[in-house]
Every structure is written in structure tokens, then in C-alpha cells.
From TrEMBL:
PROSITE patterns: GNAT (PS51186). The gene is yhbS. Residues 1-157 form the N-acetyltransferase domain. This is N-acetyltransferase. It comes from Microbispora amethystogenes. InterPro entries: Acyl_CoA_acyltransferase, GNAT_dom. The lineage of its organism: Bacteria, Bacillati, Actinomycetota, Actinomycetes, Streptosporangiales.
Length: 180
């Protein structure tokens, strides 16, 4: 499966993929309010204008029909004062789910982050899914989640022998955009 960097012509298609991928979650958060865009779309829009935006780590999986099947974004984060990467959101259009698109995007993002010399990638997600990519509980590496209640769902993938230790901080829009 071909994974490539997002380009300017992909912006609206990526927004559509993110909206479709997170629509079921949005309905659960805001029953009967389909006009409210998923918080992940708002987050994506805010991240695009933030200094933490890393265009080389905004990746898409093209669909066979010429559209976009999936998207993953990594932005600048920090562990203490050490620059690291935060992964997310990861979005796969419902028509392309369960076909390896998400896995291919995560593998590509991790490969690119490692090639760029990043020390680690952090994320909030399902341990059962992300374990296959080498993610482990952040606390096992001395990395504190932005919210202690995230527990085992906050994970890191470390490149090299050791990770920086301390509190993890995502790019600023993550603290502004409300997921509730």
C-alpha cells in the first residue's frame, strides 16, 4: 500500500476522511446533533495553523478510486523540554476500514519519525491495537501522561535505548479543543 505525504490538494479530502471516521464517536458525544463537526476535525484544522504542525509527518493513504482512504498526523510534542512527536489523530474512512490502511499509516509515520531522528512518539489509544507497533505504557519509560487518568491508554514508542523522562505535552491545540 502506497503511503505519501499530504499535499495542499488533499486538505478537504483529509477533512472528509477524519469527519467520516469519527462520525460515530461524535454522534455518541452529541446525540441528535449531526451538524456538529467531530472534535477531531476541529483539532486537525487548529493543528494546521499551529507551530507544532509537522508537514513531513502528515501522511495519507490514497484510495484506489483516487480519493483518500486514510490519514495520520504527527505533531511536535515535548517530554519536559525535549522535542518529541505526538501521533494522532489516525483516521480511516469507514469504506476502507479493516483492510490494513490504519496499520500502514502507523508504520509509515513511525518509520518517518525514526528517520527524522525523533527520540519517541507518544499517543493516546487502545493498547491492544498499538502494542503491535511497539508502543508501551508511557509510565514504564518515565513519561507522564498529560492527564493521569489516561493510565495505560497513554503510550510511547521509543527509538533507541532510552527515552527522555518527564511530563509529556502535546501541541497546544490539544489543550484547547474539547473532546467532550
Amino acid at each position: 500500500m502506497l503511503i505519501r505525504r499530504e499535499n495542499l490538494g488533499d486538505v478537504e479530502a483529509v477533512r472528509g476522511v477524519v469527519a467520516a471516521a469519527f462520525a460515530p464517536h461524535q454522534e455518541a458525544r452529541h446525540p441528535g446533533r449531526p451538524q456538529v463537526p467531530p472534535v477531531e476535525v476541529v483539532l486537525l484544522d487548529e493543528l494546521r495553523t499551529d507551530p507544532g504542525w509537522l508537514p513531513e509527518l502528515s501522511l495519507v493513504a490514497p484510495a484506489p478510486d483516487g480519493g483518500i482512504a486514510g490519514h495520520v498526523l504527527c505533531t511536535r510534542a515535548h517530554v519536559g523540554t525535549v522535542p518529541v512527536v505526538g501521533l494522532g489523530p489516525l483516521s480511516v474512512h469507514p469504506a476502507h476500514q479493516r483492510r490494513g490502511v490504519g496499520s500502514a499509516l502507523v508504520h509509515a509515520a513511525l518509520g518517518a519519525a525514526e528517520a527524522l531522528g525523533e527520540p519517541l512518539v507518544g499517543l493516546l489509544g487502545d493498547p491492544a491495537y498499538y502494542r503491535r507497533f511497539g508502543f508501551e505504557p508511557a509510565s514504564a519509560h518515565g513519561v507522564a501522561a498529560p492527564d493521569p487518568s489516561w493510565g495505560e491508554f497513554f503510550q510511547v514508542r521509543v527509538f533507541g535505548r532510552s527515552a527522555p523522562r518527564g511530563p509529556f505535552a502535546y501541541a497546544e491545540p490539544f489543550s484547547r479543543v474539547d473532546g467532550g
